[in-house]
Amino acid sequence: MQRVILKDKTFVPYITSDKILESVKHMAQKINLDLEKEMPLFLVILNGSFMFAADLLKEVTIPCEISFIKLASYHGTSSTGTVTEMIGLTEEIKGRTVVVVEDIVDTGVTLEKLAILLAKKEVKQMKVASFLLKPDAYKKSIVVDYVGMEIPNAFVVGYGLDYDGLGRNMKDIFVLDK
Asked: Which of 106, 145, 172, 177 does the annotation list as catalytic?
């Protein structure tokens, strides 16, 4: 891996695709065990989670359904603090186990909004699977049940994560060079 320049920022290698896929397999194994008696709906948060969701769900062997919702809370390299629902949930989820699939949980603002939305729809239970978690930035009390990796409060791109729309297609994860 080598440095990547996206617009006006330089990013350096951080997590290789091999380590990513190994972590995703471990997450899927835990989900398969924990939810073997359920038929969960995996609710993928677009756009950032698309690569993680594809890899995760290839490893999930229990019967399940998959749907998508698009929420936005970032502009540039920082969270706006508000969440906009751009594509909404259309499935009937009352009484169902829903697994929210997130690329990254940092402040938890998006996750909190989604938890409120799902509670109003009377889900049986909400589980959260996030590839990355920034424990130093996380300010909410919602449990993140399945975590691929914890990282410091740094800005990362690649593997679905972007900087102003760029970098999502990279198979490795890069961190902003200081």
From this structure: 106
User: 82 or 5, which is more confident?
Assistant: 5
> Cβ(173)–Cβ(6) under 8 Å?
no
140 within 8 A of 108, measured Cβ to Cβ = yes
Q: Which fold has domain 17-152?
A: Rossmann fold (3.40.50)
User: Can you spell out the DSSP letters for 65-114?
Assistant: EEEEEEEEEEETTEEEEEEEEEE---S--TT-EEEEEEEEESS-HHHHHH
Q: What residue ranges do the domains of the chain occupy?
A: 17-152
28 half-sphere exposure, CB direction, 13 A CA radius = 19
pLDDT in tens, 63-118: 999 999 987 665 554 555 566 665 667 788 999 999 999 999 999 988 998 899 89
Number of residues that make up the chain = 178
106 catalytic, yes or no?
yes
The rounded distance, in Å, linking the Cα atoms of 122 and 119 is 5
User: Coil, helix or strand for 8?
Assistant: coil
